[in-house]
Amino acid sequence: MKQAVIETDHLDYGFQKGERILHDINLHVPQGSIYGFLGPNGAGKTTTLRLLLGLLRSENSGIRLFGNPMPGSRIDILKRIGSLIEQPSLYLHLTGRENLEVFRRAYECPASRVGEVLQVTGLSDAAAKKTKAYSLGMKQRLAIAIALLHDPELLIMDEPTNGLDPNGIIEIRELIRDLNRHQGKTVLVSSHLLAEVEKLATHVCIIHQGKLLFQGTLAELQSLQHRHALLEIEVDDVARAEQILSGRFTVFAQSGFTVHVAHAEPDEAASINHMLVGGGVRVSRLCAVGNDLEGLFLQIISA
Amino acid sequence: MKTRFFANTAAEFMKTKGSFALWLTILAALFIPAIHVVILLERPDIMLPKLEQTPWLTFFRVNWKNVAAVILPMYVILITNLIVQIEFRNNTWKQVYASPRSFTDIFFSKLVVIQVLVPVYIFCFDVFIILAGLLVHSLNPAYRLTAGNIAWDSLLLITCRVYLGCLAVSVIQYWLSLRFRNFVIPLGLGLGLWITGIVLMDWDKIIYYPYVYSAFMFFIDFDKEPQQLVVLTISSITALVLSVGIAYYDIKHRPERG
């Protein structure tokens, strides 16, 4: 197993006494990975990321970054992390370059880094513009430029594609991929979109209601997803379809002429169709469902 | 460490660029002297006898009277709120706290900005008083507000005393502005605390109430009550030290940052 850049040991957290927003979270973010931190809104993603960055106070939290405890080694850890939490944090009355200058002083990096990160994020031409005139995509890229100023080993990004148009999403995705592949940065990226994480991540963690439900490589998640795939089939005789399939598969009759069939292997869709047609049932529609995050959650929870 | 603090303080000053902070400082400093230029020029029948004996000292006192009691506390309340709101409005506190800066650095570098802007305001105000006096004299030489007889020592004494009196309030307002994201709360609390001080002016324990120190530093006749100057100076310094200590401790130990 690769060395972990982020580790949490039975992390629990609540904003008030007696409240538990996070339950027993054991994160293991391998070095060099793009770690997709997946969960619906309110799952506890941002709270976890804020704890990792020391934005929430938690004594003896069991959080270790680069092997050092947080918040014990807060400053040493933060020197090695670039972050983007929720919407971009920018001084809108300042220009892009001035925003970078403000944070360059905090990170103690040379003035030349400003030009470099502007170039990496494609904002060189807009550097003299006030950031209030930036589009959301440009703001997001400038926030990433700030995160990159001190050439950190780890990037923590909370929903970096939130609110972006498809072009903006592709740009940010490509940028993250490039930073990981060509600059060797470990990236922890949170999202509520499974499709987004699938396109980007090497490792995935699923969190729901403050509990960690899955953690592993993308391939492991995909195999789990296939094992619990669901087909939605429109037939002319629901009772007959149930009768044919119930011996081999779990069948859930839906309203009208629709049934849901749970199956393990992707190629079983053809067998199911063959069985139904062979049994005299007319199949008018057959499609995979439940590949969305919510569906996958339900499957993982019930697994 | 020191270099780093200076660099971060310079960054804090950068954040005020293009904000209303500088305009507020200049306009607030100009406001009272400009009004008095008009009064002196429009009503020489009333003002000339008043300024006859000690033209500059009286002119300083006429101007400082309003500032020590009203304008300076208002300015302090507004400027602390404005400086801290730069972070809240832009949602940047989380980025500030996620950067490798100590809490001490973050707390004091912004406080330095406020503690520079307040003296800048006072300095501008003093400069505008002198310019106003010279302007009045140039338009009506009967006032004898000439460059040669400016009572520098009186001006310096009033300035230093009133500034010392407002220091604790500037820190308390800074603390309140850091505590509350909604700018109306520190603004309302500041105004409320200041008005309370005005109402309770005759209370025998008012000496423990920092919001009246700047007014007392101006209005008390220390030639008649010299012991009051000592009491007020000690109270102002104690309130300053206590407010810095309490504010720093509280902000450092907040469960949530940004």
Q: Can you give keywords for this protein?
A:
heterodimer; A: 303 residues; alpha/beta; Rossmann fold; Alpha-Beta Plaits; 2 domains; six-stranded mixed β-sheet; four-stranded antiparallel β-sheet; B: mainly alpha; 10 helices; 78% helix; globular
Give the topology.
The complex is a heterodimer of chains A (303) and B (258).
Chain A: E1 4-8, E2 11-13, E3 22-25, E4 28-30, E5 34-38, H1 45-52, E6 63-65, E7 68-70, H2 74-78, E8 81-84, H3 96-107, H4 112-120, H5 136-148, E9 154-158, H6 166-183, E10 186-191, H7 194-200, E11 203-208, E12 211-217, H8 218-227, E13 229-235, H9 238-245, E14 250-253, E15 258-263, H10 268-278, E16 283-289, H11 293-302
Parallel strand pairs in A: 5-10, 5-11, 8-9, 9-10
Antiparallel strand pairs in A: 1-4, 1-6, 2-3, 6-7, 11-12, 13-15, 13-16, 14-15
Helix pairs in contact in A: 3-4, 4-5
Chain B: H1 2-16, H2 21-42, H3 44-50, H4 55-90, H5 93-97, H6 103-139, H7 152-179, H8 184-199, H9 213-219, H10 226-252
Helix pairs in contact in B: 1-6, 2-3, 2-4, 2-6, 4-6, 4-7, 4-8, 4-9, 6-7, 7-8, 7-9, 7-10
What does this protein structure show overall?
The complex is a heterodimer of chains A (303) and B (258). Chain A is an alpha/beta fold. Chain A folds into 2 domains: 4-217, Rossmann fold; 228-302, B family DNA polymerase, N domain, alpha/beta motif (Alpha-Beta Plaits, 2-Layer Sandwich). Helices cover 37% and strands 26% of the residues of chain A. Chain A is built from 11 helices and 16 strands. Chain A has helices at residues 45-52, 74-78, 96-107, 112-120, 136-148, 166-183, 194-200, 218-227, 238-245, 268-278, 293-302, and strands at 4-8, 11-13, 22-25, 28-30, 34-38, 63-65, 68-70, 81-84, 154-158, 186-191, 203-208, 211-217, 229-235, 250-253, 258-263, 283-289. In chain A, strands 8-9-10-5-11-12 form a 6-stranded mixed β-sheet, with helices on both faces. In chain A, strands 4-1-6-7 form a 4-stranded antiparallel β-sheet, with no helix packed on it. Chain A has a 4-stranded antiparallel β-sheet with strand order 14-15-13-16. In chain A, helix 3 packs across helix 4 (112-120). Chain A is elongated, with a radius of gyration of 23 Å. Chain A starts with a strand and ends with a helix. The model of chain A has no long low-confidence stretch (mean pLDDT 86). Chain B has 258 residues and is mostly helical. Chain B has one domain (2-252). In chain B, helix 4 (55-90) runs antiparallel to helix 6 and helix 4 packs parallel to helix 7. Chain B is globular and about 60 Å long. The A-B interface holds A 15, 50, 53-57, 74-76, 78-79, 81, 83, 85-87, 89-94, 98, 101-103, 105-108, 130, 146 and B 4, 7-8, 10-11, 14-15, 17-19, 86, 89-102, 253-258.
